[in-house]
Amino acid sequence: MTARWALAVGAGVLVLCPARAQDAQFTQFYAAPTYLSPAFAGTSSQSRFSTLFRDQWSAIPGAFITYTASFDHYLSEYNSGLGLIMMHDRAGSGALRYTSATFQYAYEFELKRKVFLRPALQLGMVSHAVDYSRLVFGDQLARGGDVASYEHMEGKSVTYGDAGAGLLFFTPKVWLGVAMHHLNEPDQSLLDSEARVPMKFSAHGGYRYRIRTPVIRKKQQSIVGAFNYRAQGRFDQLDLGVYYEQEPVFAGLWYRGLPLIKAYEPGYQNNDMVAVLLGVIVNDWRIGYSYDLTVSRLAAHTGGAHEISLTYEFADRRTRRAMYKRRIVPCAKF
Questions:
Q1: How many CA atoms does the CB half-sphere of 214 hold within 13 Å?
Q2: Lower CB density within 10 Å: C or N end of the chain?
Q3: Which strand (E) or helix (H) includes residue 252?
């Protein structure tokens, strides 16, 4: 009975309240960089396809499941990048769902040799839906749980436009970027009340250090340090990470939290997770896996988060050689 009451309370929070939800987040955000910012559209040598799957808090009934699939292409003759990203996010028992399709455009300025600036815009459509048949209401609990509810709720889905922008600066060793999502703060309410999607701000960047060895190696070794800060509504978070790369193998370690800067409650340390990431390159495929170990008060209950990424870059050899000599974003690929 306790579980049913918990489900009913959760359903009420998700559906009835004008919630201030946060966007889905990824540990391997550089495996799907166009989700991080539209300014990454077209930053591969020519074309790139990537997909991500995330299962967050798998030990909790009704975990968060998120899928993304994206494609972006660099138009060298126009110094432009085009991108398309599709995402599906399912919360709880599957009753609450978000599905979106977003088009992106970035223009690339070469400020000087191998120094670039990329402003970008994105426009998308989002479908926000709920399946009331998957929810349990109070009258069902009182009458046994399996009978139909007396509740009658209008509005099973809503569709709205969404806009965002980004800016990326990069050299062969450094990258810095900012992005703003939900610039129009669209109304996502399924009922008569208003529920605006809060604007999200993110700042990201890092530095690539190439390890020099006495013996010349065919495959270079690198250490990449990176960060990703984001703020949405009253919540913000910081990811700090480091990667070791020696093709075809990659490994990374990430921390998420703001323990010394901000606490949402007195005495509550703002720690979220520590993540381990492993990746391998097979031909032109990049395959990554990461596991988030929860270090907050929920550590004993969540089961962490699993994430799998798959990326394929394709370009003819001449284009790939030319692009890598002239321009390459130094961020990690996982």
A1: 0
A2: N
A3: strand 249-257
Decide if 57 contacts 31 (C-beta within 8 A): no
Q: What token pair was written down for 112?
A: 């000087």
> What pLDDT, in 10s, does the model give residues 40-59?
999 987 899 999 999 987 76
CA distance 120 to 164: 9
DSSP letter assigned to residue 219: S
User: The pTM is what?
Assistant: 0.84
Contact 222, 238 (CB under 8 A): no
DSSP letter assigned to residue 134: G
Omega prior to 248 cis, within 30 of 0: yes
SS3 172: coil
d(CA 197, CA 156) in angstroms, rounded, equals 18
Mark residue 182 as left, alpha or beta (left: phi above 0; alpha: psi -120 to 50; beta: remaining).
left
Q: Which two tokens stand for residue 248?
A: 């075809």
